[in-house]
Design brief:
The structure is a single chain. By secondary structure, the chain is α/β, with parallel strands linked by helices. It is built from 16 helices and twelve strands. Helix content is 49%, strand content 15%. Strands 3-2-1-4-5-6 form a six-stranded parallel β-sheet, with helices on both faces. A three-stranded antiparallel β-sheet has the order 7-8-9. Strand 5, helix 6 and strand 6 form a beta-alpha-beta unit. Helix 1 packs parallel to helix 2, helix 2 packs across helix 12 and helix 4 runs antiparallel to helix 5. It binds nicotinamide-adenine-dinucleotide, 6-O-phosphono-alpha-D-glucopyranose and manganese (II) ion. 6-O-phosphono-alpha-D-glucopyranose binds next to helix 7 and helix 12.
Length: 445
């Protein structure tokens, strides 16, 4: 079948991930051909170095693509088939506060989990809603594929306020974990793994893992996880694991697994099941945001400036990442009706049979040009159901708290989070988060 050329805008053009998405798009012109590629950001200065470098990269490697970058919503969102969104409202500086403020109270400080995730959610939701509105105004038939975190909380907000919008919220963590498993199992690619998985975003479990012939891969993976977690025992091809904090998270999967050995867990469950360990091993003065600013952000911006200065990217070390692969796979499935099976964040509507219909859950879906169809995963166990419902209430209260500008609901959200020990700590934390987020949050009543 002849594949029609697509037009894409990457929103959050100044993101540390943009260049690797552009690289992957260029490498996949046979599977997902492009006629136009744009970057859009609301911060011209931030986007410029990335935009200039991508201009060189596209000219050198895929000159047929019409490339541009802009901060004008009309220019960015007109004539596009896909919006690939990954904005970070408040930037890495606010991520640093999301991580450091809770740690002061002895509570997990994390980008998407616990108080940090709640704070980030309140900043992110209005930003993502604005992008949807631009898309619907200038390209009403387009799809938005949204990575912007906290993806589960953002998904709950879009479910309520933009129920008919063509937005799919996504996460690359399960893919990253499956890449490690492919290494462990000696498979060529994680796409050789057919899985059954359910939960919320950054909060789920695998119940079944098979190869394409239907052979059960769980016993071997369980044996490995008991010893090493998700870290591979030998040669490493997963780039995440070259970073110490991620390597620790993958190893910790061993302890998370031990709590519920019938299933294999998402690594993010460490923040809910082992918050004491997470706090004890954190450095309250130097968190993941600092690591990202000192490494990924610094390196990518230096490399983009170098490309722009030299006018060539022939020798660049920027590579297409798994983050990029997943989003392009999803866009291809929607554009070319491939019926790909992918883990996505969707409205439950019975997919997890004993969880309420209006929960935004993460489950395998079949993706075609008609959209996404969740697969039935059956009931969650008593343990998992209890955990899911607690966290689901946190996420719903967070979104209600924002929409109703309700101090009370946000206090409840924080009090209910498994990462927070008491309503007293929740209140102190909320008061400090309100101050830190004064430029972003609405006034609370
Ligand atoms: P970053 O700060 O480097 O980049 C984000 C960009 O968004 C910046 O250039 C910023 O100017 C821009 N931006 C902020 N608010 C905007 C708005 N309202 N409109 C347009 N642009 C806006 O961040 P990063 O580390 O590259 O991460 C980007 C996002 O991707 C984050 O939300 C991160 O959590 C998310 N992410 C999600 C997943 C996932 O699994 N869902 C995986 C990786 C990253
Ligand atoms: C994974 C998660 C993302 C998260 C990212 C953080 O990819 O799925 O949701 O944003 O990790 O990675 P970082 O390197 O920024 O800490
Ligand atoms: Mn994620």
């Amino acid at each position: 079948m002849e594949r029609k050329e697509q037009s894409v805008v990457i929103a959050g053009g100044g993101s540390t991930y943009t260049a690797s998405i552009v690289m992957l798009l260029i490498e996949n012109q046979d599977k997902f051909p492009l006629r136009k590629l744009k970057l859009y950001d609301n911060d011209a200065e931030r986007q410029e170095p990335i935009g200039k470098a991508c201009e060189v990269i596209v000219k050198e490697r895929a000159p047929h693509i019409d490339f541009s970058y802009t901060t004008d919503p009309e220019a960015g969102f007109t004539d596009v088939d896909f919006v690939m969104a990954h904005i970070r409202v408040g930037g890495l500086k606010m991520r640093e506060k999301d991580e450091k403020i809770p740690l002061k109270y002895g509570v997990v400080g994390q980008e998407t989990c616990g108080p940090g995730g709640i704070a980030y959610g309140l900043r992110s939701i209005p930003g993502v809603l604005e992008l949807i509105d631009y898309m619907e105004k200038y390209s009403p038939n387009a799809w938005m594929l949204n990575y912007s975190n906290p993806a589960g909380i953002v998904a709950e907000a879009t479910r309520i306020l933009r129920p008919d919008s063509k937005i799919i919220n996504i996460c690359d963590m399960p893919v990253a974990i499956k890449k490690s498993w492919a290494d462990i199992l000696g498979l060529e690619s994680e796409t050789d793994i057919i899985d059954r998985y359910y939960g919320l975003n950054h909060f789920g479990w695998w119940t079944d893992i098979r190869d394409k012939e239907g052979n059960d891969l769980m016993p071997k993976l369980k044996e490995h996880t008991t010893k090493y977690g998700y870290a591979t025992a030998g040669e490493e091809t997963n780039p995440l694991l070259s970073e110490e904090s991620w390597a620790d998270t993958y190893t910790k999967a061993k302890d998370i697994y031990a709590v519920d050995p019938d299933t294999l867990p998402n690594t993010y469950l460490k923040y809910y099941l082992f918050p004491d360990y997470v706090v004890e091993t954190a450095n309250p003065n130097h968190t993941r945001a600092n690591e990202v600013m000192e490494h990924r952000e610094k390196n990518i911006f230096a490399e983009c400036r170098r490309i722009a200065e030299n006018g060539t990217a022939e020798d660049t070390n920027i590579v297409a990442g798994e983050h990029a692969e997943f989003i392009v796979q999803l866009a291809s499935a929607l554009a070319f009706n491939t019926h790909e099976r992918m883990l996505l964040i969707v409205e439950n509507k019975g997919a997890i049979s004993n969880i309420q219909d209006d929960a935004m859950v993460e489950v395998p879906c079949i993706v075609s040009k008609y959209g996404v169809e969740p697969l039935a995963m059956g009931p969650a166990s008593t343990f998992q159901k209890g955990m899911i419902e607690q966290q689901l209430a946190v996420e719903k209260l967070t979104v209600q708290g924002l929409f109703e500008q309700s101090y009370q609901k946000l206090w409840q959200a924080l009090s209910l989070s498994k990462t927070v020990p008491s309503a007293k700590v929740a209140k102190d934390l909320l008061d400090e988060l309100i101050e830190a987020n004064a430029d972003f949050w609405p006034e609370l009543k």
